[in-house]
Amino acid sequence: MSHLTYRLIIGMAAAGIASAQFGGGPAWNVAGGDAQRTSWVRTDPKISAAEMQKPGFRLLWKVKVNNDARQDYSLSQAVEFPRYIGYRGFRSLAFFGGASNNSVAIDTDLGRIEWAHHFDGALPNGTATCPGGTIAGVSRPTPLTDNPLGTVQAGRAATHALSAVGEPHEGAVQVTQFFRAGGASGRGPRAPAAYGSNAVFALSADGLLHLEYVSNGEESEAPIRFLPANANASGLIFNETDVYVSTKNSCGGAPNAVWGIDLLSPEKKVYSWKTNGGSVVGTAFGTDGTVYASTGDGDYSPAAFSDSVVALDRKTLAMKDFFSPAKSAFTTSPMVFAFGGKYLIAVANQDGHIYLLDAASPGGADHRTPLASIAASVTTGELATWEANGTRWILAPVSGGKSAVAAFKVVDAGGKPSLQAAWVSRDMTVPQTPAIVNGVIFAVSGGDAQHPAVLYALDGATGRDVWNSGATMTSYARTGVSGGSSQLYLGTHDSTVYAFGFPLVPTGE
Amino acid sequence: MGWSADWITDGGDSQRTHWQKDEKLISPATAKNIKLLWKLQLDSKPRVMTNLYTALITNRVTTKSGPKQVALVAGVTDKLFAIDADTGTLLWTKQFSSTSGDYSPIQDGSILCPGGQTATPYIEPTATPGKYTILAVSGDGLLHQLNLADGEDIKPPSKFVPPGGKIWALNVVKGVIYTHTSQGCGGNPNVAYAYDLATDKVGSWGPAGGGMWGRTGPAVSPTTGAMYTGTGDGQWHPEDGVYGNGIVGLKQDPESKQLKLYDYFGPPNAAWLVKRDLDAQVTPVIFNYKGKELMVSGSKECRLWLMDTAAIGGDDHRTDLYTTPTFCNEDVNFASAGIWGSLATWVDAKGTRWVLSPFWGPKDSRFDVPVTNGPVTKGGVMAFKVEESGGKYKLAPAWMSRDLDQGEPPVVANGVVFTYASGEATAQAYVDVGLQDTSQRRIPASTHSTLYALDAETGKELWSSGNDIKSWLHFGELSVANGRVYIGTWDGILYCYGIKK
Fold first, then answer.
1. Hey, what's the torsion of the CAs at B331, B332, B334, B338, to 10 degrees?
2. Beta bridge partners of B19
3. Interface contact flag, A163 B205, Cβ < 8 Å
4. What are the tens digits of pLDDT across the range B329-376?
5. Rounded to whole angstroms, how far apart are CA atoms B303 and B384?
6. Which pLDDT band, with edges at 50, 70 and 90, does A146 fall under?
7. B214 pLDDT above the threshold of 70
8. How crowded is residue B248: how many other Cβ atoms within 10 Å of its Cβ?
């Protein structure tokens, strides 16, 4: 073919502007967002410090879920599946565990309940320390590796409409070089699905593990015995082959422990690491698979690992290392993040400090020496972290003198990480775990029986208010906000799910 | 016989009205007498889920054995079959020799990209009465021009489109063949094509967005001279020259023979259509109404857009004359729901202009239609009347058909609506695995097609083929001419139903 004639209809250069339409990057798969429990969504097509200064961010919908709270537990933090192609169509879904033995999926575009599932089995008479129920949260498959959450920035197409004409008898001009083939549906051949890829994992009050189809909530296999009934479980997470959870308060006769179950083993092998003392407050995972767990107060002897942060082997949960500064309970789960070429752990203690540990050797040779610490009382939620412009930040819901969200910077002090106080937000009532979306802090004033929850958007650099939900919510909350793809979700004690964000698209509804 | 009718292109005419204006034998009164006149097993085997295309009917073809009414059927494995429509006997068969690619039968493979001949041909009348030229495109992308009387080449094959692509039904107006492609089949971009028969030049235009997969190919406006098509699944950013999930009008430049963007319409919720994979993929239908040329198209979302071809999207390219509410697909599904295929339009004796739309899945519970014919769970046909008052246009719901196991494109003939339930298993995703669109699942789950005749005023069932048809039909169309209705099924059988003269 010669003398081809190409002519651009519109000669605009390809634009690199983010597009709102195509969510689908790594998603908020588990409580804390990722296996490291960072609560950090790196990117978002619409949420940004600049966009939050403009009108538009608002309540998108609210949905009442058929669920009853048990003590302070109602709905879990939302877990997302932003682009699922199922038998009912393309969906953006959010999943919640409901304390009264429920799980529910919501179509987050339309605010419609996609499915709801009630687990069989008796619910115990709950107490504040042993509420019973589906309280461990739900999980989608969560990779251990660094898994930057955030919407894939699909951008505008790198091509534009083209017109052409070929020479006589030579057919159409081959314009393949300008257009990508295969359409835009993203529905080409797919690799075999990994185990659990179409499942939501949930734990019912009777200690059974449930694998529910993402599509309709039906169980893909018979429930699997995982824990003793009525344990107080938290931090449910599935990655690749195993599910992990931790227990506290010795509820239901379940020892305080980190528990794992190998779902690919024929016998569904359950294994555990027991503290022989205090509760397990929470877990986080290193990118090498190491399980880090923090523990509460209890027997403080060589036979027990209360008041500690322990490092456990992923497949056996055998202890590899530990840190215990003194007989004082840890109050948050560990959180793992990269800094200065290594992975660090941040965790808060009842002694009023946030500790910074080297994930490769928590506590050093004497198991008592952190890399750094800073004063902060953290008792009402978990830590969060993000990085911006080369600065690593840690956020903490603090209480004591002032209930608020406090921000700290991790800095290099002579080759050693150190913590610096940066800012403290406005006052909040029972502040919950914050989330960071593209540099914007979303903090929840959890409220109480007299004060409904309020969602705040804060400037990441200063902590200054940039938006709040006002009187939108009518009940209090005891979980952090979660989300992505320009929407945030929060379930309140009255089992109502609120979605806030920028409307993605006019649906035509 | 003092009258005769042809069906020389998919959809009946270039405007894709699916309206057989010249039918006399079949009527609401006689439809109950429809019988199977003949059926013919053609030597045509499927490629995955595709086999036969719409039968094209020419009433009086001069052949060596005298004038004949000829039904021409294309098969996916690069075949053409000419059949004596009066007797159901084969006149001739043509097998194209591929210059690129193997287009022999296959069962397993890509449903979306079967390869081989993918477009219904076109029959071009010549200046000589009784002499017609077949225009067909083989899987290797060559344009063939053959004599309908005997299947012999009139001209050597000429390069048209890239091999292995998926072009849709050919449309021919004033010596230009229009078609478009989708799904990026054969590694080819999704492009609209215009073959200029006078110069053998091919103009092309690509939306840089989705594939164009209107089942009946493009519609061409007699007024504007442009071809119109939906641009399937892709982003709508006209400011960047990206035109997915909208409607575009393309026009051949008479000098250069380039195909150029002429007009466009982007639904206000185009981004939503992308997000939920609700492609704008319905072949538009064009008609006159009160002095205006109007056009209707739709998408899997299950709305219809009523447009004025003078400016299909208004000044801002986002404003049509009227948009219906969703009348199906309340679940917002990308498969087994919504409008799939093409529309029909006709004018009744009172001058009322009707638009008919097939649909898959149940009716939207929020949609009200005055006349129904039983509950609809799997699909049906929805009929609208075009109305205008004070310059405001509307598609007013009129009736809904009985339940059809996938409602397929209707054809209107003398007060009778012919449509068919395809019997095709259209699910592409499943509870346990999500998306798994394979022929191994869909072929065994498909059942059989059923042809229906409905009263065009009410949708009431007048006749059906019952369980007579043994196989199903993927992405097919009907044709109606001279008291006969034709449907070809996946097993390679062409059925001819009608009323004996």
1. 90
2. B412
3. yes
4. 999 999 999 999 999 999 999 999 999 999 999 999 999 999 999 999
5. 12
6. confident
7. yes
8. 30
Q: Tens digit of pLDDT for each residue in A464-492?
A: 999 999 999 999 999 999 998 899 999 99
Based on the number of CB atoms within 10 Å of its own CB, is B440 exposed (0-12), middle (13-18) or buried (19 or more)? exposed
Q: Which amino acid is at A283?
A: T
Please state, in angstroms and rounded to a whole number, the distance separating the CA atoms of residues A289 and A335: 14
Helix (H, G, I), strand (E, B) or coil at B443: helix
User: Which of A85, A87, A157 faces B431 most closely, judged by CB atoms?
Assistant: A87
Termini Cα distance of chain A: 50
Please identify which residue in the block is written with the tokens 């014919």.
B373
Q: Which residue of A has its CA nearest to B432?
A: A213
Token output for B6: 């042809």
Cβ contact B403:B376 at 8 Å: yes
Residue A455, φ and ψ in degrees, nearest 5: -95, 130
Cβ atoms of A69 and A99 closer than 8 Å: yes
How far CA B235 is from CA of B174, B213, B267, B329, B386, in Å, comes to 32, 16, 11, 21, 30
* Helix, strand counts (H, E) of chain B: 2, 37
Q: Could you tell me which residues come within 8 angstroms of residue A153 by beta carbon, excluding any fewer than 6 positions away?
A: A18, A19, A43, A45
**CB-based contact B202 A175, cutoff 8 Å:** no
* Percentage above 70 pLDDT, chain A: 88
The beta-carbon neighbor of B429 closest among A87, A172, A507 is A87
ipTM over 0.85: yes
The owner of tokens 């505008």 is: A156
Residue A177 pLDDT greater than 50, yes or no: no
| β partners of residue A225 | A208
Q: B190, A183: Cβ pair inside 8 Å?
A: yes
The distance of A166 to chain B (nearest Cα, Å) reads 5
CA distance B183 to B280: 13
> According to the model, what pLDDT value does residue B209 have?
80
A292-325 tens-digit pLDDT: 999 999 999 999 999 999 999 999 999 999 999 9
Give B244's contacts in chain A (Cβ within 8 Å). Answer: 184
Q: How far is CA A55 from CA A304, A467, A487, in A?
A: 54, 10, 15
**Distance between first and last Cα of chain B:** 10
Where in B281-330 does DSSP place strands (E)? Answer: 285-289, 292-298, 304-308, 322-323
What is the 8-class DSSP label of residue B13?
S
A164/B240 Cβ within 8 A: no
CA distance A398 to A408: 12
CB contact under 8 A, B200 and A190: no
Q: What's the pLDDT tens digit per position in B129-181?
A: 999 999 999 999 999 999 999 999 999 999 999 999 999 999 999 999 999 99
| SS3 of residue B81 by DSSP | strand
Question: If DSSP codes are grouped into helix, strand and coil, which group holds residue B227?
Answer: strand
Cβ burial of B30 (10 Å; 0-12, 13-18, 19+) is middle
What is the distance of C-alpha B210 from the center of its chain? 18
Q: Which of A163, A173, A190 to mutate to test the interface with B (most CBs of B within 10 A)?
A: A163
What rounded mean pLDDT belongs to chain B? Answer: 97
Q: Give dist(CA B361, CA B344) in Å, integer.
A: 19
**C-beta atoms of A175 and B260 within 8 A:** no
Q: How confident is the model at residue A375 (pLDDT cuts 50, 70, 90)?
A: very high
Alpha carbon distance B142, A234 (integer Å): 65
Q: Is A428 helix (H, G, I), strand (E, B) or coil?
A: coil
pLDDT at residue B299, as a whole number: 97
CB B472 within 8 A of CB B449: yes
Residue B409, SS3?
coil
Distance CA B284, CA B313 (A): 14
The two structure tokens encoding residue B8? 């020389």
